[in-house]
Amino acid sequence: MASLDRFRVTGGASLRGEVTVTGAKNSVLKLMAASILAAGTTTIENVPEIADVDIMSDLLTRLGCTVIHTKDSVTIDVPEKLGYRADYDLVRKMRASINVLGPLVARIGRAEVALPGGDAIGSRGLDYHIKGLEALGAKAHIEHGYVIAEAEDGLIGSFIELDFPSVGATENIMTAAVLAKGVTIIENSAREPDLIDLGEFLISMGAKIQGLGTPLITITGVEKLNPTTHVTIPDRIITGTWAFAAAMTRGDITIHGARAKDLELPLEKLVSAGAIVTSTSDGIRVRMDSRPHAIDVATLPYPGFPTDLLPMVIALNSIAVGHSLVTENVFESRFMFVNELIRLGAQISVDGHHASIEGVPELSGAPVEATDIRAGAGLVLAALVSEGETTIDGAFHVDRGYPNFAEQLVTLGAKVSRE
Ligand code: UD1
Questions:
Q1: Which range of residues forms the domain containing residue 243?
Q2: Total structural domains within the chain
Q3: Of the residues 180, 197, 231, which one is the last residue of a structural domain?
Q4: Which residues line ligand 1 (CB under 6 A)?
Q5: How confident is residue 121, by pLDDT bands cut at 50, 70 and 90?
Q6: What is the atom index within ligand 1 of the atom nearest the CA of 190?
Q7: Do residue 124 and residue 102 come from a single domain?
Q8: Are residues 385 and 248 in the same domain?
Q9: How far is the CA of 186 from the centre of ligand 1 (A)?
Q10: Cα–Cα distance between 363 and 409 in angstroms, integer?
Q11: Residue 119: active-site member
Q12: pLDDT of 19-53, one tens digit each?
């Protein structure tokens, strides 16, 4: 069973070589969900081979779509008449399932989407999503664990100010407002590159959207959208993971297909840790010759330091020269995996949203467990700089976000196997 898989890593290798970064998970899942806004055949390219794409395919199939997933593209045939229910068994496996909420209400006037519940990184509410849809005229309530949203007579454009620039809420509101009557303004909207990708996808379907990449998005509703073909942007979190891997292992990795502009702050931080980061013709190269210097980081919505790279920065600081303070501002309990790093000999103390880290020259291999995708990747990086052998249980978490992670690590010279 895949869920019992683990990685076995023998530390000590410097990672050297080339990798190619695939399409962004956090973008492609949202693009797939938004495809239901238009009847007909939409094709999404540069799709990573990860388990979550299959879960989203299942969800769309249950709504009545025909989904064909070839190696790196997904073709979604969206019927005129769609179902409206996203069941708990799929939503609990993958939170991005809630991204069908906005499109369903906009297109067919009804959605029943299971509440995702909490997960390993925090409670992750849906209140902004629901308030946003209500502002557009939908009636929403929660019944038997489902959000039920209705707008039989269609949605009406509105002014919506978010208390926090939530990525998911901005996406659900934007994908609903594209078919609403009139103008919607989202103030304090998210600015993540994935959200810009979704906006551009919608524009290619015929939507009218202005202000993508700024905290003020203006959407003028249209009556109907058309199917489209779209190429997903490269995954900035995988890019960042490789960049941290190069810096931590004193390696030299060229990352083809990477977009440095989506990762300005993490790359600047790596430079202050001592890495040499250069642009290449189609990506970036990250080199490191010495032990990294500790870096202070506070996660924030884009363009701030991404919360998804928090485990990587804590792993780097664990073996850095000096003391560092890392603050998590997006999720309430992302530090669970710190206990696993401590099992490897890291010197970390956590106080609320802050982790205080005293770097040690080397970690020491031990069995550990991944609790979510990014924690899993961070633990693999820590294992690479641990003396001896580390096993990381819960490899399936990592599979959700990193296509062929172990194989790619081996290509770069790491001693990693999967069992
Ligand atoms: C978040 C990240 C995103 C990352 C993704 C996957 C941010 C701002 N967002 O997006 O970059 O790719 O995880 O790991 O870094 N919240 C509410 N009520 C709501 C919606 C959100 O209270 O209705 C809170 C959440 O609990 C959380 C914060 O707002 O504390 C950010 O949430 P949000 O951006 O919506 O999360 P994701 O869309 O999952």
A1: 6-21+234-418
A2: 2
A3: 231
A4: 26, 122-129, 164, 166-169, 192, 301, 306-308, 330-331
A5: low
A6: 8
A7: yes
A8: yes
A9: 16
A10: 19
A11: yes
A12: 999 999 999 999 999 999 999 999 999 999 998 99
